[in-house]
Amino acid sequence: MGNRELSASEQQRLLRRGVAEIIVEEELARLLEAGRPLRLKQGFDPSCPDIHLGHVVGLRKLRQFQELGHQVILIVGDWTAQIGDPSGESATRPMLSPEEVRTNAETYLKQFFKVVDRDKTKVVWQSEWFGKFDLSDVISLTSKFTVAQMLAREDFAKRHAAGRPIALTELLYPLLQAYDSVMIKADVEFGGTDQKFNCLVGRELQQMAGQPPQQVFLVPLLLGTDGSQKMSKSLGNYIAIDEPPNEIYGKVMSIPDDLMMDYFELLTDVPDEELKQFRGELAAQSVNPMELKKRLAWEIVALFHTAAAAKEAEAEFERVVQKREVSVHISETVGIRDSVSVVQYREIANWLVSRQLVKSISEVKRLIAQGAVQIIHEDGSRHVVSEGSVQIRPGDVVQYGKRRFVRIINTDKETEA
């Protein structure tokens, strides 16, 4: 079926909210008015299996287009994943085996369809066409562009000017991504602002192939929880969409106040008029920013879980962070044999790492240095762990970080039971 006619407010929501740039906006507007379903290209590099909120910004736009009758063509980059696209990171990525690509893709797709409508999505693998490529095809493709054109890409230009290496395989990445557009006859390609160059190469290659050039729909890059760099798993400043409700809620509450309105605009359906009101209240300092942030955290948890889960996550945050009480959700335990034990801080660190609750001893040391590891006794008193020994009893709780806990139990009693 074709797309239904857009109201003025729908067009505003589609082409303005959460959009960085559209190339060419007038042409896209004409396509939307033409009444035929558009083919929306979304590619993903399965070098990493998980989706975080940074990815969700673009996925939400895809869903909005789907609701108007358009189709998403999701391209699994099983060939380009073996090359790696630095996307401004100034570093090549390791090549993946076909098995690693498929495993990552399965996880990605499961999460992808938490946002995008599965019934209005066609999934294709690059290997459907690149699997048939031979050397003559590669030479033919590379002959259409010059090295100077490739060096126009900002990341390549910076590395070339600084004398840092650029692998020939990296120069192929934009060409292969562009060829995807030709093979699926994309009407619109979606991506973050860091993908602008690659998407524009797709427009050029389509015209060389006698196809109408795709429109390019770019969304902003979401800053991570540190408030300074784009959200990234490698930087550890990400919020994954498959995390438990309490983790998502707590991480959203940790973002700097000045990121709140970007998150509201890019990740929620809170109406524009209400967002305008929020901005006015923040500017006038007539509202506590924490109250708005709690609304934001609730909205995001409800998006990937349920309203009930969001309500419980809010209650848990108020209990643990605001009231400094012990979480009611403690599944992990550490056993000791005596009624009272004196342990070194290194032993506590080993407990946390051996249970994979913390990644490394160095991370535990960092938490200890920040005063973020505490022993909470049954009477409610607290002891901040430092680089020394600490007394613990069964029933005590070890808190590490703001929202994570381990309970101390008596293993002798467990054995007797």
The Rg value, from CA coordinates, equals 25 Å
Give average pLDDT, whole number.
84
The number of domains is 3
What is the CATH H-level superfamily of the largest domain? HUPs
Estimate what percentage of residues fall within beta strands: 5-15%
Shape: globular
* Strand order in the sheet with the most strands: 1-6-5-2-3-4
CATH topological fold name of the largest domain? Rossmann fold
Largest sheet: 6 strands, mixed
Instruction: Name the CATH class of the largest domain.
Output: Alpha Beta
Number of helices: 18
Instruction: Give the class from helix and strand content and strand pairing.
Output: alpha/beta
- The tally of strands reads 13
Helix content: 40-55%
pLDDT < 50 runs, ≥5 residues: 87-92
Alpha carbon gap, first and last residue: 65 Å
What is the second-level CATH architecture of the largest domain?
3-Layer(aba) Sandwich
Task: Explain this structure.
It is a single chain. The protein has three domains: 8-219, HUPs (Rossmann fold, 3-Layer(aba) Sandwich); 245-322, Tyrosyl-Transfer RNA Synthetase (Orthogonal Bundle), CATH 1.10.240; 333-416, Structural Genomics Hypothetical 15.5 Kd Protein In mrcA-pckA Intergenic Region, Chain A. It is globular, with a radius of gyration of 25 Å. It has helices spanning 8-15, 25-34, 53-66, 98-112, 127-130, 135-142, 147-150, 154-161, 168-184, 196-208, 245-253, 260-267, 272-284, 289-304, 307-322, 345-354, 361-369, 411-416; strands spanning 21-23, 39-44, 71-76, 121-125, 188-192, 215-219, 333-336, 341-344, 373-376, 382-384, 389-392, 397-400, 405-410. Helix 11 (245-253) crosses helix 15 (307-322) and helix 12 packs parallel to helix 14. The protein has a six-stranded mixed beta sheet with strand order 1-6-5-2-3-4, sandwiched between helices. Strands 7-13-12-9-10 form a five-stranded mixed beta sheet. A two-stranded antiparallel ribbon has the order 8-11. It is α/β, with parallel strands linked by helices and 417 residues long. The chain is built from 18 helices and 13 strands.
